[in-house]
Design a protein that fits this description.
By secondary structure, this protein is an alpha/beta fold. The protein has five domains: about 170 residues, 3-Layer(aba) Sandwich (Rossmann fold), CATH 3.40.50.300; about 60 residues, Helicase, Ruva Protein, domain 3, CATH 1.10.8; about 120 residues, Zinc Finger, Delta Prime, domain 3 (Up-down Bundle); about 80 residues, no CATH class; about 100 residues, GMP Synthetase, Chain A, domain 3 (2-Layer Sandwich). It has 27 helices and ten strands. The strands form three sheets. It has a five-stranded parallel β-sheet with strand order 2-3-4-1-5, covered by helices on one side. α10 runs parallel beside α12, α17 packs antiparallel against α18 and α17 packs antiparallel against α19. The radius of gyration is 38 Å and the shape is elongated. The N and C termini lie far apart (about 110 Å).
């Protein structure tokens, strides 16, 4: 090197050092270095040891699974001067010449760019000459499915009866495109996808050889992202190493950042938002992920893979042992699949798969992704069979909830102790400071007062399930008329419930029964009545699908129907608000049940 003496030795070495990608630097040179191909390796080694090498082979499989690598090892092994147990020695002249791509005995041809009849004729002409050194002349034709029909026909005769020193190895990722006449002349070896454990083990070997510190979890994720391809796994490791160079250990979180991927728990959150129909929150989550630099196509592809795992678990939870996921993620997946039905999961997979194809060549990727996500949350927007199945299942769930609601009402009416408690509460009236108490049986009601309290207010629990809370100053209190009664902290009652709201609550069963729209009547029957601090009548739903019937901006007509019907039945003008309980939220946490409040004010019905 010119002026090398004036440069530090470190820079001289760096300039002379040739960089190779990891998948090239650590390409196996013997059969013993190959991972995950034990059956194929054993077959080929036995043929070499016993002198039963065939004249044509077909290596079929996806990218990066070892087809060309094993073909080159096989070419060295059949020409090696000192083979050992079917493996090339790697030291003789033939092994070194083949490894350095300077041997005329091994011809590697790319059929993707040399696919004409003329190219095959050149091969046929070369085959007629025996090798000047070595034992075999090996032709490795990569991507052989790209040959034209005429080229295949030209190759047929030579492939069927080649000279004894010629060996053809055809490599392809699409064996279905090869003529049957070609397939029948070859010994076929299928190279399936490598397991995640196999790739992760090889990545650990390479990382240790490169003195690269990396978490096992990070390498395992890279192996999973490789999708069965060893070459893809080594390329991803090379990418992560370049980004993380000099930054210490390669962590799982840094790997996700480099690859633009997300943790599987994010897909669980996104699936639950889609399942609950929370379109706005789902779009916000997508926006959050994109702002973090996540790649959109990869994000959707990984989400499809997550849904695929849910589909397998839904079909049978015994498939859990076959899923390559951690214990924590598996627990979340099982929870998710139990919430959904198979048609819903399959519909999500189909729509996202279609979306992936649409956004690959679109300039409006984000808009298409947001549109697709909203469609997932709104099955009513589609009329296909899968969407109709999902909508039917939603209606079935709502009908089941309605049946439970009706059963609870019937159980209440058939409970003598509870009716006696309500009757006692109604007879006591609602005088300030006076309360009605009931024993465990609810029959022996006793009166109590709020003695000793500055504001003179008090309340005893008439029954365990009724709200027994009062609002007042710091001196307010609760007095229980029975040890069986239960009191609990909760939302404060409005200072004064408007009379029109009270009247609606008293007559709600009749108002609901006279609702002309059956659909609205069923859905409103699943709501509980409450009142907010502004004096509005509040319908509270515990199911987001039910609530969406009234809260959705597109359902303004439904809200008007409910409001007009209430006005027509009561002659009162009242404001109506619709609310839905959040996950894990209980109705009594933030709302007052008007039915309990009204029950304490009215006289018992003699017909009961």
């Amino acid at each position: 090197m010119e002026n090398a003496g004036s440069l530090p030795r470190f820079f001289i070495l760096m300039a002379e050092q040739k960089f190779l990608a990891l998948y090239r630097k650590y390409r196996p040179q013997t059969f013993e270095d190959v991972r995950g191909r034990d059956a194929i390796v054993r077959t080929l080694k036995n043929q070499i040891i016993n002198g039963r090498v065939s004249h044509s082979y077909l290596f079929a499989g996806t990218r990066g699974t070892g087809k060309t690598t094993i073909a080159k090892i096989f070419a060295k092994a059949v020409n090696c001067e000192h083979p050992h147990d079917g493996n090339p020695c790697g030291e003789c002249e033939m092994c070194r010449a083949i490894a350095e791509d300077r041997s005329f005995n091994v011809v590697e041809m790319d059929a993707a760019s040399n696919n004409s009849v003329e190219d095959i004729r050149k091969v046929i002409d070369e085959v007629s000459y025996s090798p000047s050194e070595g034992k075999k002349r090996v032709y490795i034709i990569d991507e052989v499915h790209m040959l034209s029909g005429a080229a295949f026909n030209a190759l047929l005769k030579t492939l069927e009866e080649p000279p004894e020193y010629a060996v053809f190895i055809l490599c392809t990722t699409e064996p279905n495109r090869l003529p049957v006449t070609i397939l029948s002349r070859c010994q076929r070896f299928d190279f399936g996808r490598l397991t995640t454990e196999t790739i992760a083990g090889r990545l650990r070997e390479v990382a240790d050889a490169e003195h690269l510190e990396a978490e096992d979890r990070a390498l395992h994720y890279i192996a999973g992202a490789a999708d069965g391809s060893m070459r893809d796994g080594l390329s991803l490791l090379d990418q992560c190493n370049a980004f993380n160079y000099g930054a210490g250990e390669l962590t799982y979180e840094r790997t996700l950042e480099i690859l633009g991927a997300v943790d599987p728990s994010v897909f669980s959150t996104l699936f639950r938002l889609v399942h609950d129909g929370k379109a706005a929150e789902a779009v916000h989550k997508l926006d959050e992920l994109l702002m973090q630099g996540r790649e959109l196509v990869r994000l959707i592809t990984d989400f499809i893979w997550y849904l695929r795992n849910l589909m397998l678990l839904k079909a049978s939870e015994d498939t859990a042992k076959d899923l390559d996921v951690s214990g924590e993620n598996l627990t979340r997946m099982i929870e998710d699949e139990r919430k959904a039905e198979m048609p819903e999961i399959q519909r999500d997979i189909r729509m996202l798969s279609e979306l992936t194809e649409q956004i690959r060549f679109s300039s409006n990727r984000r808009i298409l992704a947001e549109t697709g996500l909203i469609r997932l949350c709104r099955p009513q927007m589609d009329t296909d069979t899968d969407a109709l199945r999902v909508r039917v299942q939603q209606v079935e769930r709502l009908m089941a909830e309605r049946d439970r609601y009706i059963a609870q009402i019937q159980q209440t009416l058939q409970n003598p102790a509870l009716m006696a408690a309500l009757s006692g509460a109604g007879q006591q009236g609602s005088m300030p400071g006076q309360v009605a108490g009931s024993g465990a049986a609810g029959a022996a009601g006793t009166a109590g007062t709020g003695a000793g309290m500055p504001d003179g207010t008090g309340m005893s629990a008439g029954m365990a399930s009724a709200d027994s809370r009062v609002s007042g100053s710091s001196g307010s209190g609760v007095m229980a008329g029975s040890a069986a009664a239960v009191t609990s902290a909760g939302p404060l009652l409005p200072k004064a419930i408007p009379e029109e709201v009270r009247e609606i609550a008293r007559n709600w069963p009749k108002i609901l029964a006279s609702m002309p729209d059956n659909y609205i009547r069923v859905f409103l029957g699943l709501a509980k009545l409450s009142c907010d601090e502004q004096g509005n009548l509040v319908f509270v739903f515990d199911n987001p699908v039910t609530a969406d019937t009234f809260t959705n901006k597109e359902h303004e007509k439904t809200r008007e129907t409910v409001l007009n019907h209430i006005r027509a039945q009561t002659g009162k003008d009242v404001s109506v608000v619709y609310k839905c309980l959040d996950n894990q939220e209980k109705f009594t946490d933030n709302y007052v049940d008007l039915s309990d409040v009204v029950k304490m004010e009215i006289e018992p019905d003699d017909s009961l």
